[in-house]
Amino acid sequence: MFVLIILNHNINAQQSFGIKAGVQFSKMKEFVLNTNYLTSLQAKGIGVFKINKSIALTPSIGYSGKGFVYRNLQMTDNLGNTIGTADAHNLFNYIQLTVPVSYSIGFGKANTLFFGAGPYFAYALSGKGKLKNIHGTVDPSSWALYSDDTYKRTDAGLVIELSGTLNQRFLISLNTDFGFTDVFKGEEAKMKTIAGGVSIGYLFQN
Predict the structure, then answer these.
(1) Residue 62 region by backbone torsions, left for phi larger than 0, else alpha for psi between -120 and 50, else beta
(2) Which of 1, 122, 128, 179 could bridge to 94 as Cys pair (CB 3.0-4.6 Å)?
(3) Do residues 97 and 155 make contact, with C-beta atoms less than 8 angstroms apart?
């Protein structure tokens, strides 16, 4: 009980909150077809809870866009005739909770480097597919990814993060997410998310 009280006191005395946003590149590790990287956004609220001089919890929660691109798909008409090519962009709009445990290294009095790893849990509020980079007589089109029973909305995996703070307020963060969940419901393929991104942010001090 005494240890828990001391730990709780240390966390409460050394905590800060903030926001971060940036770009993310993602694809699907698919065991049938090759996918290409999709560029999307991420925006999250973050917390820094220092347990001691070297260890901190650095959780975040917010929007994480992930997905994949199929490039140069051969498009056909109702009779099976080739009418052109297009890229199919597939974006999943996730709300993601990330809970890394980080090792921190101080540089001077106001700069800190965090290196951490931990689980993430995500739920897709929506998803959209869209044809881009069209060649030929292909009509532009879009579709809802969850309109049928093709994909699972939940995802979970491991995140590795490298973050640095300047003056204990300004933040730059690199993330790599490795999905462990097969988000495809079909039996003919397995799909797991892979993503990497960079964000900048700001910490509001107590």
Answers:
(1) left
(2) 122
(3) no
- Domains of the chain (ranges; CATH) run 2-204 (2.40.160.20)
Residues composing the chain: 206
CB-CB contact of 161 with 58 (8 Å): yes
DSSP annotation string for 57-121: E--EEEEEEEEEEEEEEEEE-TTS-EEEEEEEEEEEEEEEEE--EEEEEEETTTEEEEEEEEEEE
CA gap 138, 153 in Å, rounded: 30
pLDDT, tens digit (0-9, with 9 covering 90-100), for 80-122: 888 889 999 999 999 999 999 999 998 877 889 999 999 999 9
Tokens of 201: 């942010």
Query: For 20-77, what is each residue's pLDDT tens digit?
Result: 999 999 999 877 777 899 999 999 999 999 999 899 999 999 999 999 999 988 888 8
75 DSSP β-pair partners: 84
pTM > 0.90: yes or no: no
